[in-house]
## 1
Amino acid sequence: MRRKAGLILLALAVFFAALSPLVRWYAFPRLAKIPANQYQDMVLEAKDATLLDYGTMKARKVSKVTIVQTLKGNVEASEKIEATAGKDVVVWDGLSYVVGPDGKMVSKIPERYIFDAHTQEPVHATGEMVDGDPVKRQGIEFKWPFLTEKRDYEYFDAQARVTAPIHYKGTQNFRGVDVYYFEQTIPWTKVKFPRTMPVEGITPESVAKTGTTRWYTTVRKFWVEPLTGAPVYGEEIHKEELRGGTLLGGRDKVTAFAGHVKMREDYIDSTVDLVKSNRTLVLLMTSYLPWGFLILGLLLLSLSLYLEARGRRPGDPEPTRNTDPEPVSA
């Protein structure tokens, strides 16, 4: 019985030892994915900001500018792209909607972001765009990959339509969560006017005829939980200017918007809670289960060897053998 039990334990030990790397290196890349139907929204605020009054074309101080950012998974579009891409793809239809202190729209910029569900690498397909303009993203946007590393990444800036490094600046603790801090600076860059302008009757084409151009710079900051790759907090020191042309009445430039944009407090709390729960799931696949199965396999192996050794202890009586009697010699 001991020998039979030892063989069973040995088989289980081999099974769990083999299961350990399979969970980490086979199951995790296939199961850890962004859901195709995910919907999320975020509210950011810039208090004591500077905003252009398009009625007078003068910059003025305002109490607050609010930015509502939504990301909605487009399941139908992702399924169409997956049919030819050969991988799980997520399509996010995003909208950045900016309103002033009076609740009136300042700008709204839609975009479609298409990416690999596990790696978060961009997937180039028809429909990828920012504010109606086709783009071909390089680098990440919105989310870092699972198991984020302590290194610089390429990050796509939707305003300037460029990709630039976002630098790893160190590890911090943010509200009880260990995070990696990243920072990116986009220098003053000439950018397009939004297709939807805040004043009825004014279009990007009519502004372009005046010779006035729009310029933008920002310092982008993210605090990223490394296991999930999800930002738990973000800020931007954001500035926009209109330069030259007859629209400014002889002035060289005027501030269109300037402010320190931060996540609203209630959204910080909900984001941290969500990331904490998802972090546990990633730990389960990358650490708890692989190490647990490996340790269990070693324990079962040890128990199997112990039972085998007990079955062969020295000093046990030899089994009785039936022998024929020896012939008696005369």
## 2
Amino acid sequence: MEYLSFELPIQELMDQYQTCSLVGEESGVDVKLACSQIEDKIIEKKKEIYGNLTPWQRVQLSRHPDRPYTLDYINGMVDKGSFLELHGDRNFADDPAMIGGLATLDGQKVMIIGTQKGRTTKERQHRRFGMPNPEGYRKALRLMKLAEKFRIPVITLVDTPGAYPGLEAEERGQGEAIARNIFEMTMLKTPIFTYIIGEGASGGALGIGVGNKVYMLENTWYTVIAPESCSSILWRNWDHKEDAANALNLTPKDALREKFIDGIIEEPLGGAHYDPETTYLNLKASILQNIKAFSKFTGKELETQRQDKFIAMGQFKG
């Protein structure tokens, strides 16, 4: 387990617990009481730290290297052996930063699409740290259209610092690809449910984020720009990233208050990486609940509900 800077008090207690356990094993002395007391302190410290996270700390937690990624959620949620990954945009190439395919959840057919980061240095480079190229968004749209044809619900999992900003991406129409996805998703005649599972930044997130329902996991963020980039624009450096995080209202509670999302998916104490299986179950339960709730909607009703939802964003009564 890797620990972030604000988690160091927890690491110290965990080290104490491991030392206590080791002493008991090697010496044969009964140290159960001492270890139990340290366990209680660990739980108390976790509640103290994770119950008072700043927006910047929540951003850091969303990027934790042990946090589950899209493929982890897919493997943890779908029926065993049911995921069939589909590749290519039928135009230029396959984008490893955007994955998707057919699967079943408790027998329910779904099309799952999401941005994918990498664990190792080589894999991170291969997947461009979860930043899709235009062909990634076009692949996602192709899969959505395929799902619409067979009236299969679409599940999108968002974890991206933004669309890839490279020259080749711009040459192949990055802005147009994202805009096309947003336009087409507003009119898709099958249910779309979006979940922010990590980072949700800018148009890169919105390119697969126009859903009938949009949810955020507890330790994620969702806003128009990353705090570091915002700090670079306003202050010409990254030194004010914490101030930017505070001003951007990027936490799940902020997004729910402003009605940008429809709910928050609870994570285990400390974050999804402490207990991935429980997080998978929480996410799966929400997906199945939404599929059931929208199962009787007609294609036109789904389209209208989705459009009304996003048109209403940003409206204020004086």
## 3
Amino acid sequence: MRFRTIPAVAAGSALLLLTGCGAADMTKQASPFANARGARTVTLSVQSWVGAQANVAVAQYLLEHELGYRVDTVQVDEVPAWDALSQGRVDAILEDWGHPDQEQRYVEDKKTIVAGGDLGVTGHIGWFVPTYFAKEHPDVTDWKNLNKYAGEFRTPESGGKGQLLDGSPSYVTNDKALVKNLKLDYRVVFAGSEAAQITQIQQFAKEKKPFLTYWYTPQWLSEQVPMTEVKLPPYEEGCDAEPDEVACAYPHTPLQKYLNADFARGGGKAAELLRNFRWTTEDQNEVSLMIAEQKLSPQEAAEKWVDGHRSVWEKWLP
């Protein structure tokens, strides 16, 4: 899912350095605001996709302009963000696509993280082909026929196999296991980031070339480049429990918010606003499009959305 450039504050840069190689013990690091006595500060984790930027931008704008807090943001990969949240390095994650191991460890066992409620958006990961190709070859939307089209999806990077284009290796993905377990003549090729993946998809679409890609909804690019999902074997509860044995589709996931437990108890109006934050896919895509397509800064996009949607966000205020 689920992406791109977020201004990094000094604290964010330090956090990225700490989590980058996985060797540093963040529990031994002081909070960047540990000595700011009485400061009304909130630190939000920003995931690397543009929808997550949209959530944080709007929450930040309201916290600063309506409640008078200072907000800092840090960009951390999905799993390290849970570690940072548990340790109080960040106060909230506003869009989680499902990490059951982390939920068990930090919410159920350690109780250092608490659920912050639904974001209001349902996410879904899947494999997609451009709609223009699906119209010409309707049977491509059944995974059983993918090997028939492997040659159509071949690229120099896929080494003689069909290419399944993924984004960042840090995203939630079962694709390598799916290719192996479904005996597909494909190779997973990582673009490296959502931005790079989007650039490749746009280039394929411009040239009307076929492609097969890991993709997710909601995502603003789907409006610009219509894509049709390939039906994988149906998802059933527990079918993805063993990562190496996955042979089923991805689930539909109501996206969740999580708060550091101490912040949830003592974060006052800031914590209350974040718990109340709930909007629609259309709201998120509106802000995402302003950031990704109109090239507004996240702060500018948030301000524009807030100005036009008072009836939505007023309900979130404590």
## 4
Amino acid sequence: MEPVPNVTRADAAQAVRNPLAFIAERWTPSSRTVQRAALAALVMAVAIVVTGGAVRLTGSGLGCPTWPKCTDDSITATSAMGVHGVIEFGNRMLTYVLSAAVGWAIIAARSQKPRRHSLTRLGWAQFWIVMSNAVLGGIVVLVGLNPYTVAAHFLLSTALIAAATVMWQRTREGDDVPRPLVGKSVRQLVWFLVTATLLLIAVGTVVTGAGPHAGDSSEVKRIPLNWENVTKLHAVLAWIVVTLAFALWFVLKAVDAPKGPLHRTRDLFLVLLGQGVIGYVQYFTDLPEVLVGLHMFGSCLVWIATLRVLLSLRERAEIVTNLPGQSTESALTRA
């Protein structure tokens, strides 16, 4: 067993001034460790959306009626608040788990050698989105679950998932200039697909804001729209996204595109089909809470799958970082 090195006063001062640099000087993670850290942040970004949906679907949105405390007199939920207080407070605590996952991703990216500034920036982008969304979540409570703030809360989570997905992909690539795998017209079609998917998600938040699941058993303001009409618009947009995905798959086959974009498009199409089935079943069964929750989870998967299609349209040289004393290999990988 190797002796633990002594920590001097200078080391302690450096750790306080710049803890990330202090860790990076003493630890070099493998490529797999960095990839796992980025994946953990992505998984937690999805988990916080699902648990947030559970808060709303169980009517626990005001289980903790104030913020940052749970009540005026208590930081935590009390027994008098019942199960709604436990659910709401539990979701708040999960934010710390998400923050820890993002922190691990930042530390791992910062410690990788050679240092990759682009990867670290993606980690910090997630951190600031999490902090902004935590504040916005508090505002949501303070304004009594105003549907417009709830929609903004979800859209910020969508931005977090985007940053986490890009970082996860970039951990498996180097920093060389990307080489396109398909032509300009195909890339434009994919950008249409990404835009349509974003619009689909945005309209989905309007369906939520106008629909029957207000998030609390008390009287909660709703968006003054007929939720069934908005749902039909949402369905039309979903069919547009499905059509674009199907058309993209045929175009990629026609131009003999590499397997990466083809496989990612196939994955997206399958996720869209599953999401569509859940959407129609929940609509015709009067929106049961379990199916609505699954639909929210599916929304996250659709967004991730769409971004993976976009990221699969180019390739970079992959850098494999090993532990000190081992060689660093480079290979060409496709997204």
